[in-house]
Design a protein that fits this description.
By secondary structure, the protein is α+β, with helices and mostly antiparallel strands. The chain folds into two domains: 146 residues, Cyclophilin; 28 residues, no CATH class. The protein contains three helices and ten strands. The strands form two sheets. Strands 1-9-7-8-3-2-10 form a seven-stranded antiparallel β-sheet. A three-stranded antiparallel β-sheet has the order 4-5-6, with no helix packed on it. Strand 2 and strand 3 form a beta hairpin. It is globular, with a radius of gyration of 19 Å. InterPro entries: Cyclophilin-like_dom_sf, Cyclophilin-type_PPIase_dom. One of its GO terms (molecular function) is peptidyl-prolyl cis-trans isomerase activity. This is PPIase cyclophilin-type domain-containing protein.
């Protein structure tokens, strides 16, 4: 079939008892019921998001939702969705669960947005700053495919210590500094960004 794309399915079991607040926020983004959209279910949802970043051997990151953006408001950055202000705050919750294996669903504790991660192996470096909220029950094949995709390394291909490598690092530093000074969005760190699209096109809660 022309232009067909492979479809895969992931199923996560959520740790409702160990992470009640973290799992509630995750489900809200699954259903589109976060904040003032609770009654309408037409808010920002993972059904219009993707996996976008890879930390090899650590975590695959995704969940950034199309149309949910940060915008300046009253001297600080707030989320906005479909031109409606959506004040989100970090879910400050921790538990005793460790990032001890592959396939754990996790989230940054201090991040107010919808982003999440799935561990690629035991990842003790995430303990303390990320909270485990569930585990992958189906979809291991897709996780394997994601970690095999090409991504931006942010590293020079030149020999370490060589003149060419030093020139690369100097140019990278100058470009980043100049971009930040003029507000160019390209100054953001793209290390780990996937070079292939992995879209989440539908999602829901299995009761």
């Amino acid at each position: 079939q022309p232009h067909s794309r492979p479809l895969y399915r992931m199923v996560f079991g959520l740790y409702n008892e160990a992470a009640p607040l973290g799992t509630e926020r995750f489900v809200n983004f699954v259903q589109g019921s976060v904040g003032q959209f609770k009654g309408t279910l037409d808010g920002p949802s993972y059904r219009s998001s993707c996996f976008e970043r890879l930390r090899p051997g650590v975590v695959a990151e995704g969940g950034r939702i199309t149309g949910l953006d940060l915008t300046p408001f009253a001297g600080q950055l707030e989320y906005q969705y479909r031109s409606r202000l959506l004040p989100l705050r970090p879910v400050l919750e921790v538990n005793d669960l460790k990032h001890s294996q592959r396939g754990l669903l996790t989230r940054r504790i201090l991040n107010a947005g919808p982003e999440f991660g799935v561990t690629l192996a035991a990842a003790p470096s995430l303990d303390g700053s990320w909270e485990v909220i569930g585990e992958l029950q189906q979809g291991g094949e897709l996780l394997h495919l994601i970690e095999e995709l090409p991504f931006i390394t942010g590293k020079s291909v030149e020999q370490p210590g060589s003149l060419a490598e030093q020139v690369f690092q100097a140019q990278k530093s100058v470009f980043s500094s100049l971009s930040k000074s003029v507000g160019d969005s390209r100054a953001s760190d793209r290390t780990g960004q996937l070079l292939r699209r992995v879209e989440i096109t539908n999602c829901g809660v299995i009761v």
